Amino acid sequence: MREMAGAVPEVSRDSETAGKQFYCRKEKSLGVLCSNFLKLYNRDGVDLIGLDDAAIKLGVERRRIYDVVNILESVGVVARKQKNQYSWKGFAAIPQALRELKEESLKENFGASGFCSSMKDLNENENKGSSQNANGEDNSSMLSKLESKREKSLWLLTQNFVKLFLCSDMDFITLDNAAAALLGDDHNSTAMRTKVRRLYDIANVFSSLNLIEKTHHPESRKPAYRWLGWTGKPNNGSVTTSDLQVPKKRIFGTDITNTKRKRADPLVGLKSNQKENVPVGIKHNDLENDGSVDKLKQHSRHSSAGFVYGPFTPRSEATVHDSAGHNSIQDLKTLASTYYPRYQNQGIL
DNA sequence: GCATCCCGCCAGCCG
DNA sequence: CGGCTGGCGGGATGC
Question: Is the CB atom of residue A311 positioned under 7 angstroms from any atom of strand B?
Fold first, then answer.
């Protein structure tokens, strides 16, 4: 994986595979990957998940698996077992995980009026106990190191994101607001931008889990997310986008990370730091605001039962739908086999 | 044009 | 030291 570049030296171009698989960003979204991941492992008998296995079966770089898995771990769907291995907990673990998160956040006074103030280090405890630090390194130093690492993790960010929904009574949250809140005081544009990127990642997998739904803020019209909570199943219970079932789908396995669009100049060494102003947060204090948000809150209470597909549109919904009745292993088998990426898969096959 | 967010470089950590 | 992890943000894609 990491040497992808070397392993797949721009074979991409005209080389065989007649088909011209165009690059389609949407098909590569974390949301789609997550759906496929869930589809692949949400079955009886599945207990352990090997990251390599997942990466190969899903035809993506391992790096992406880390993203999905880290987010899923935040809501209990999977749990880290050991290096390179996670255990599948299933959707049944979600309610409990959410309950705990809510409890935690309440304890930390997360929601309430000014929750954003104490966003940082809200995980100081962490049943430590292991103070066998190395010589010279005092406990605090060590802790802060680990802490800072943990503090920026996707795992924590995801949990805090959830807490935001669980504790503030707002139903609609824009990622800008979330980022601002989760960032605490430092609102510099660069940090915001990065944080928002990560939130988009999280939002995508949450959308595929159907925990949230993307809509627009009732008044500001701005894109925002609405909490749906765990209603029993991810999306429509089957994979969203094309993929599986589409009998004809183009060869997917050939594009692991696919024919990338190579950026022109590799030595971007010194970029002019021009990232000055970015509309930091939408000003309106949706968050810290007191009470007044309640009105927005009940605006549209789940109007239709129709699902929302998150970021990606299902255009192949019909297909997915009717054959979903028997989604099953067969499909997965096919999926897996057609997915074999052509970079290092000898193992199986 | 701006919202979205994929991609993969590369720094830490772990064994 | 090599491999596993995963933060991070450039810049491409979508609309």
Answer: yes
The separation, in Å, between residue A293 CA and nucleotide C14 C1' comes to 31
The CATH number of whichever domain residue A61 belongs to comes to: 1.10.10.10
**Segments in chain A below pLDDT 50:** 1-19, 112-139, 237-260, 262-349
Which window residues (112-151, chain A) lie with Cβ within 7 Å of strand B? 145-146, 149
Nucleotides of C under 7 A from a protein CB: 4-15
Domain count, chain A: 1
| Residue A332 within any structural domain of the chain | no
What pLDDT does residue A212 have?
93
Could you identify the residue written with the tokens 């929750």? A115
In a domain, A176, yes or no: yes
What pLDDT is recorded for position A151? Answer: 75
Of A205, A245, A247, the C-alpha closest to A225 is A205
Is A339 a domain residue?
Answer: no
- pLDDT tens, residue by residue, A64-95: 999 999 999 999 999 999 999 999 999 999 99
By DSSP bridging, strand A223-227 and strand A212-216 are: antiparallel
Which strand B bases fall within 7 angstroms of a protein CB? 3-10, 12-15
**CA-CA distance, A212 to A227, in Å (whole number)?**
4
What sign for the dihedral angle of Cα A334, A335, A336, A339? positive
Task: Give the distance between the most distant pair of CA atoms in chain A.
Answer: 64
Say if A98 falls within a structural domain: yes
**Cβ neighbours for A335, distance < 8 A, ≥ 6 positions apart:** A36, A39, A40, A57, A243, A244
Q: At what angle do helices A189-209 and A175-183 cross, to 10 degrees?
A: 120
- Residue A41 DSSP one-character state: H
Q: What is the DSSP string of A55-109?
A: HHHHTS-HHHHHHHHHHHHHTTSEEEEETTEEEE--GGGHHHHHHHHHHHHHHTT
> Would you say the pTM of this structure is higher than 0.70?
no
Domain range for A109 is 30-114+149-227
pLDDT of residue A344: 31
